[in-house]
Specification:
This protein is of the alpha+beta class. The chain is built from 4 helices and 7 strands, in the order αββββααββαβ. The longest helix has 25 residues. It is globular, with a radius of gyration of 15 Å.
């Protein structure tokens, strides 16, 4: 299946499973994003063909303070979130200013099984976090000099990451 067909199939399967319809959805290149009014806070399915993986996640992609506070607030509000979601889920400050809750799905081929697994994972994540996501609000505009999160940090000392669930 082509990447775009895969993402469209995930979207088709996940929409009826969501607690309520998203305000916006977009498929571009290797991404499917769904948001509920704040595009900087969105659910994402990201196909990474070269590594035969698909990431399913909730992304906070605003200025550093917003993204980190949003993730910390979610984990404070739902301290057992990762345990409820099941094995393989992680929470991390992903770049200099972006944070996320995500899991990786192995997908050597983009087929019906991978569509189902990604749609089920996305629905589970949205079911557990959508109330928080819709209450978190929009980030303030980025301060001058604040990278909008577009570059990854290369030093593990600048990036807090940890598997929070075995």
């Amino acid at each position: 299946m082509l990447t775009r067909e895969f993402l469209a199939a995930v979207e088709e399967q996940v929409l009826p499973r969501l607690p309520r319809p998203p305000v916006g959805t977009v498929i571009r290149a290797s991404l499917l994003q769904l948001h509920w009014g704040v595009p900087a806070v969105h659910y994402e399915v990201w196909v990474q063909r070269r590594s035969e993986r698909v990431e399913v996640g909730l992304h906070f992609e605003g200025p550093t303070e917003f993204s980190r506070a949003a993730l910390a607030g979610l984990l404070d509000e739902r301290p057992l979130l990762l345990a409820e979601l099941g094995p393989g889920w992680e929470a991390e400050d992903w770049t200099v200013s972006w944070s996320r809750v995500h899991r990786t799905v192995r997908a050597a081929t983009l087929d019906g099984g991978a569509v189902e697994e990604c749609a089920a994972s996305l629905a589970r994540l949205a079911g557990a976090t959508l109330e928080y996501v819709t209450a978190v609000g929009a980030p303030e505009p980025a301060a001058r000099g604040d990278s909008a999160g577009r570059r990854r940090t290369s030093s593990p000392h600048r990036r807090r990451r940890g598997r929070l669930m075995p």
